[in-house]
Amino acid sequence: MLDRRKFYIEGEWVAPLAQNDFEVINPATEKPIAVISMGTAADIDRAVSAAKKAFASYSQTSVDERLALLEKLLDIYKRRYEEMAQTITLELGAPITMSREQQADVGVGHLQGFIDALKRLKLREALPNGDLLLREPIGVCGLITPWNWPINQIALKVVPALATGSTCVLKPSEFTPLNAMLYAEMVHEAGFPAGTFNLVNGDGPNVGSALSRHKAIDMMSFTGSTRAGIAVSKDAADTVKRVTLELGGKSPNIVFEDADLDDRITGSVVECFNNSGQSCDAPTRLLVQRSVYDKVVEIAGRVGLDAKVGNPAEEGSHIGPLVSEIQYGRVQALIEAGIAEGARVLVGGAGKPDGFETGYFVKPTIFADVNNDMRIARDEVFGPVLAIMAFDTEEEAIAIANDTNYGLAAYVQTTDATRAERVATRLRAGMVHINGAPHRYGSPFGGYKQSGNGREGGMFGLEDFLEVKTLHLPDVG
Ligand code: NDP
User: Quick one: 232 and 295 in the same domain?
Assistant: First the structure.
């Protein structure tokens, strides 16, 4: 078993101030793979002091100096890419093919997206009224990341902090801390000055909360559940720090009768099940025009039956386990709620798939005849569970799509480009995918309503980490 009990503070791996061991579990085998330490408020104090000290000089570095460091980090990441993919497979349970093609790939894509944006960023801008606008690093940033797309979230927070001249303390999820510690090694090797990046492991209520409440932290960037996002915001309120949040979703996927049904329904089911359904922007509510409802149910059922779970260590397009026993329990409870509320089980259902009694595997599940008041239509399931429901008119589809507390992503399937844009503009969501178009690196990622605030990635992601200063210059002449 790996011993990873140290934290990365001020450029060194240091022992925690108090011993508090925690075992990291492989979700496919339920066996421990590493031991880490759960930190305390005192460890956070130490890391924040280091970040504050480093900010004094790091905030004065030039864009060119920071670009050189980021380019170096990119080279190192590419060199250690396979290690990153293997680590994510081991601690999250993402199948290795998916880890290589998606989970690890985002670490390259986002870093490149930020490098491109930093080259275009205007730190000094003359306003038409004669004033001068300066963009400056916000300060010491507290970063809290979840387990579902671990290096994605780390890259979306650590990179813009360091790119803009801020310093940071990262608390990754204790369920998937190993990829974060590997990233710390890469940041170290790239030569970022001591104290610019710090990592403390621990849980949300203790370490996460200590970070959010800390008066020397200028900004919190959090990704996770809406519940925890609210807790971070409340903890941060007393010190009036900036808080950016990327929270849950219950994204609608509207299928009109003119869509290329075979292609679009296959793609939609595969996307919903991707990463075992553990994606905040997963298209989990399939809204189908009634005239093609039976056909869509038939295609979805066929694709759903083809979806197989499997050992994440093996290559292939199968689905891995959920990350933890807690998540397994949550997903089972919601599948049972769907059955109890009268939705029709088309594929899957409660319990473990045959032959997968060990590991947090669930049956890929599709419910038909769902209505938007059921819990499987309202709650974020975070498992491979799709809810299909019918609509008659465009107006009704938009109303059902927007009838949710969330507003992260939405999906529209139609061959009518005018309708696609008309509907997209009426959806209260931060990102709308038309006919399966993917999210592209460098574009803003984030949501409306209880899906959070702020945007991550590219130029918008950099701006969230910047303060704006106005210099009122005297009139010339
Ligand atoms: P959480 O939101 O609780 O966890 C995400 C991160 O936040 C973890 O590092 C966690 O630490 C931390 N955290 C939790 N509570 C606090 C707090 N009070 N202050 C500061 N940090 C905190 O997600 P869960 O793992 O409990 O998953 C529950 C549900 O959340 C999922 O089923 C899914 O619906 C949603 N979720 C959404 C994500 C997204 O991408 N938007 C990502 C992950 C989950 P700790 O693990 O110790 O609690």
Answer: no
CA–CA separation, 198 and 184 (whole Å) = 8
Residue 321 belongs to domain spanning = 252-442
216 and 156 inside one domain: yes
Count of other CB atoms within 10 angstroms of residue 266: 17
State yes or no: is 280 an active-site residue: yes
Residue minimizing CA distance to atom 43 of ligand 1: 224
Are residue 233 and residue 258 in the same domain, yes or no? no
Ligand 1 geometric centre to CA of 224 (Å): 4
Residue 462 shares a structural domain with residue 407:
no
Q: Which of 256, 285, 281 is nearest to 429 (CA)?
A: 281
Options 10, 174, 246, 380, the catalytic residue? 246
Choose the catalytic residue: 272, 280, 380, 456: 280
User: Among 451, 444, 468, 452, which Cα is nearest to 156's?
Assistant: 444
Q: Are 286 and 253 in contact (CB under 8 A)?
A: yes
How many residues does this entry show for the chain?
477
Pairing of strands 344-347, 365-368: antiparallel
Residue list, ligand 1 pocket, CB within 6 Å: 144, 146, 148, 173-174, 203-205, 208-209, 212, 223-225, 228, 231-232, 246-248, 280, 330, 380, 382
Domains identified in the chain, total number:
2
Find, among 332, 341, 317, the residue nearest to 269 by Cα.
Answer: 317
Q: pLDDT of 389-431, one tens digit each?
A: 999 999 999 999 999 999 999 999 999 999 999 999 999 999 9
The one-letter amino acid at 20: N
Same domain? 124 vs 196:
yes
Report which of 198, 246, 244 is spatially closest to residue 221, judged by C-alpha positions: 244
For residue 414, the Cα-to-chain-centroid distance in whole angstroms is 28
Question: Is the pTM here over 0.90, yes or no?
Answer: yes
Q: 428 in a domain, yes or no?
A: yes
Domain assignment present for 476: no
Atom of ligand 1 nearest to the CA of 232: 19
Per residue in 425-466, pLDDT tens?
Answer: 999 999 999 999 999 999 999 999 999 999 999 999 999 999
Q: Is 246 a catalytic residue?
A: yes
Contacts of 377 (CB under 8 A, 6+ apart): 250, 285, 370, 371, 387, 389
Q: In which region does residue 267 sit, left (phi positive, over 0), alpha (psi from -120 to 50) or beta (all else)? A: alpha
In this structure, are 264 and 160 located in the same domain?
no
Which one of 144, 211, 225 would you pick to mutate in the ligand 1 pocket, going by the greatest count of ligand atoms within 8 A of its CB?
225
Residues 349, 217, single domain; the answer is no
Question: Ligand 1 center to residue 145 CA distance, Å?
Answer: 8
| Residues 112, 193 within the same domain | yes
Tokens standing for residue 211 = 């970070």
Instruction: Give the Cα separation of 145 and 315 in Å (integer).
Output: 27
